[in-house]
Amino acid sequence: MKKVAAEKPTNWHRYLGPLMFAVKDTPQDSTGFTPFELIYGHKVRIPMTLLKRIWMSEDQDPDMKTAYQYVIVLRERELNRLVIWLDKNYRRYKHAIRTTMIRKREKESYA
Q1: Which of 37, 61, 84, 89 could bridge 33 with an S-S bond, Cβ 3.0-4.6 Å?
Q2: Assessment of whether the complete model's pTM goes beyond 0.85
Q3: Average pLDDT, the chain
């Protein structure tokens, strides 16, 4: 942190998050573990390690979906909801038109 503060005196605070992540993900000589491992009991799972596990098929959970699969399923679900909504509104529209036409005919017959 001292080095970054010396090199970037005006905006060192922008690098604080990545620096703290690097510190928490670096094994300590005294323990042999990273601070993250000591707190959470497992190694850090960053997106690249997750992608590597998926690509290399390392202990892949059959219920785990890739982002692509998730988006496809979500899209299909939303399309189904849209079709149901459109059908329901179309029926309402037809009913409203039918009711309006009946009332209009009734007014004309009384006139």
Answers
A1: 37
A2: no
A3: 84
